[in-house]
């Protein structure tokens, strides 16, 4: 067995993360540069950080801990100062009567251990050591200034806090109010939402406290709990920033805030709802600088991408994306607009709100309170010589009639609708007074979708299914053509499926990001004839669906579970909603 005179190099070699040549090179560079092996590995990115941490954990006999998104008791911040934590790259993340748990970037740093052991002796604590990664440590260190000192300051001055009712709209960098404690707390709430990639912020009063929750990957997580006494001040501050009426607490209010965070402008859509004795705030985070994803990145399989791309090449007609609120309909529309965007086309949109900015597209924000609705806006757009029109949502009969008229007069129209599946679009539009023979001539394609959480590729683990469970999955897939079965999927028993486990890279949730499960219904000539003659009759497209190898949302979910992208639990949750 090789001995490279360095325990870390030996361990990496034994785990087959480096070969003999790399090991010898590391040993040589360590001697020549006087850097540690770990410093050389990180500088040259020889292996992934997660693999390095696993090896160090085993070598030093310490467990791995993930601090990302972890709620830390404020008493932990008092044990070691922020300067000490930053200097030694270690933090106390858990504490009980006689034990503290310490997370370190380098548990083999004897100077750091000596420092924390001195503090522990002074306060009669025992220590349990853990190893963590750089992102986790930075997340925790940020909380010293954000979630502790600023909030502590706000709470101490809460009794004296008064929000001036005649305050005007201000930016995130307004010096006049930068020192105000509640301003700092609100800034921290916004900042951490952006850093944590949250889609929504919920600020809600309970019986004896105010709870701040972030929605991440579709799931709400409690991030901060504050005394209820500061709730009114926080709500007032948000109202000021969104140009809302501070003294109006009886009716709902909606507004918008734009802040510069991490060098980027982020929009926040604010909704305030009166409760029995207080107000709840929900804020949608709209990062308009976010790069538009491709259909493949969203999770559409190749056969469906081909159907969609063929459909959007048509010069006129309607494409509809349908599904419940929060299923990614707008994201899919913008992915399509990004494909269609070129110098030869005049593309105009009507949105509420504008979620992405795409260069070369004319984007308009509707304002119903000023009479600028989807319907009135669409009438105006038709006089703007458009080739392609995107309408954020078909909300009423007037808008439905106008998009059909636009599609029939040589425009390509994209929009969204709320139905459970692709088939539900046709009766829904007929119910909105669209004449079946017009709908038959203008409708090109319908995409129905759901968003489900994507399994973390670093920790997902394969599981065994019972015979009954396998039969249930196979019975749902038995009518599919071989052409739509993705490469890598086997329908032979035992079936390969995975479950969420949890690790430091997915905040111990087992999931990272989200993926679309969908069904794509292309309207053929035979289907147009049936729609045209519908007039309240039940439509049966079974024969046509078989010809176009139609895959339902349920089937698409099972295929993605067999690909190892999602768990079966996510499929069941999505299709039962």
Summarize the structure.
The protein has 577 residues and is an alpha/beta fold. The chain contains 22 helices and 19 strands.
Question: Helices and strands in order, then pairings?
Answer:
Blueprint: H1 7-14, H2 20-33, H3 37-44, H4 49-60, E1 63-64, H5 74-77, H6 82-88, E2 90-95, E3 99-104, H7 110-123, E4 126-131, H8 134-156, H9 181-195, E5 200-205, E6 209-216, E7 219-227, H10 231-241, E8 253-261, E9 264-274, E10 279-286, H11 295-298, H12 302-311, E11 317-322, H13 329-340, E12 347-351, E13 362-365, H14 374-381, E14 388-391, H15 397-408, E15 412-417, H16 425-431, H17 436-442, E16 443-455, E17 461-463, H18 467-477, E18 497-499, E19 511-522, H19 525-532, H20 542-547, H21 553-562, H22 568-576
Parallel strand pairs: 1-4, 3-4, 11-15, 11-16, 12-13, 12-14, 14-15
Antiparallel strand pairs: 2-3, 5-6, 5-10, 6-7, 8-9, 9-10, 16-19, 17-18
Helix pairs in contact: 1-2, 1-4, 8-9, 9-10, 14-15, 17-19, 21-22
